[in-house]
Please model this.
Amino acid sequence: MTDVETRDLGKNSGRAEPIAPSLPGASNLAAAAAAVLRKRGSIFASDAGRGADAFGLDAALRPLAELATHRDAETPLTIGLLGGAGSGKTFALATLLGDIDALSASRDAAMLPRISTVRIDAASLEGEPSVALAAVVYDKLGADYPEFVREAAHAVRDPHVVAREAAERLDDARRRLDGERQSLDEIENRRGRLTETVLFESAGSQVDAFARTNRGKIESRLASFGITGDPIANYKSMVRDISDASGATGRVGATLRAFWAFAGQGRLLVIALLLFLAGIGFDAAVDQHEAWLASLAQAGKGFGPLSAWLGAHIGWLGFAAKLAYLGAAAALVVNILRGILFLGPLFRGVGLLKSDVANRRQSLDQLYAHQTRRVDGLEADVDLAARAAAEAERRAGNAARGAVRSEPSPFKEGGAKSQAEHFFASLATYLAGAQKAAAGTPSGALSVPDRILVALDNVDALALPQARAVLEAAHRAFAHAGFVTLIAADPARLADEAVQLEKWIQVPFRLDAAGSGDYAGFVEQVIGRPGTIEDGAASATLAPAHDWSITAEESALLAQFASLAGGTPRAVKRFVNLYRIARAQAGQHKGALALFLALYSGGTADEIGAARRALSGRDDDAPLDLSSGGVQLAQALDAAQAADGLVSVGSARRSAAIARTFSTGTAA
Model:
């Protein structure tokens, strides 16, 4: 066993306390276990949404993470991680969230530092989806930014109604506090009257049982001391007097009263005193008999014989002195014996009373402590309620200042669903107002997040009607400035909602079209062969690397694909946004990428079919031919070749694969 270090507990103290040896922390143990597992390899691969990135999704997801974190990205923004069951949506979502956290912590000026992430498991939502979503967001944001959430929540309801309800809650809290205080005072009074309660109000106490069992003995002894009336009550009163006597001196004084204060005891003391004085007188007469006998003989002729007789019988006086002393001692002994016999039951009662009081006091003390804590808690509640009422009154006053109150609209919903949706709008409004008011201040001075990121997972676990209801509620809730929404869903299950998905999701990311498709590497990872793919844990920080700028040449190029992309402002905006995200993967084939992004965004079924047939050619070096797709598609190919040069089938196939990743339609 190794020596254990100690540390002094004081300069002059010889006592030392052992210091426990340092042990590895839980995180170190977990890291060590993971390292050992990677070295040895696993024997079974779970379905957990974590592990190494075998398909190279991280590189494709990184621009999405930068987009969600970038200061200049407009919101609301919805990113859809789309794929069928088991396609890795949860893994991709976790990877994306990890990259967002790392970019937010990078301290890069373009990245927002305070992104509040709310991860929602759709399968755990209960009740009305809007209300359930609001509850989750309120709890998460309330933990990180309580003042921000409180302000937004107050804006949902009429401030005058809130003020009235706050005042009612304050009144109710004060009534409960008054009632608990009265209970506390009652318990305190019971503690103060505990002796009286045990003696005179508790029939089952030990002292009461003793008194009633020995009633005859106690009654006779009390009567011998001249104490009449109810013997039980008199006995308990005397037990109380002795028990309540303060200190040893007080108890001795109360005890001594049994030897002189009661009938018969004082008379015995007087008799003992008189007999003792008589004995002293007789002894003095014997000691001085010659002198007083001589004086008696000289007093007259008639006293001579008496003096002589007394002189002859002077021993009788000594005997009388002894009798007097004996009588005094006897009277004193009787007094003491009577007092002891009288005090015996009383002392027994005092002992029983102490036992009863100790038993009752323990439970009363516990009750008193519990009631004290309850009162303290209610006092804190009243204080909080008072501050809340004052704040509500202030808000109501501000709302009424300069405003003319009118009757509430008869068409306004007042249910929880309406309040939940208003809550999200209030979050966005207050977020924008607080950030505008704090413009130019140090970032640490803000008490609001820079952006709210909501990650909605497990939508596929819901029944189809419920999944649609959750997605619709999420769209209404998070379609406000300041929100970025990440949705992991299977578009095939929501085929009837394809139009809505294209409207809701600005940035689709199809997992079946993304990644390297390296199943050999993935199988090696599943097998758990040592030394294959390292665990893809996100770094603590990441540096943004995506180029979001658009050159004049690219702008002119994109304008030529606007009609193919759909021709509407929304369609063109989506097309340009997706091009910004995807172009880093295109290399020198930006024209071909723009062509297929526009085609998969707004192309007709015939145009997409013609492109699919053209891409099915076996010769990768052959030039791409889209003439069968119509004039618009042919002109788009000409524009792409003007930018890239000759577009071969192979380069077109690679560009189409990238574009397919950022499309929602299954036709692509």
Summary: The chain is about 60% helix and 5% strand.
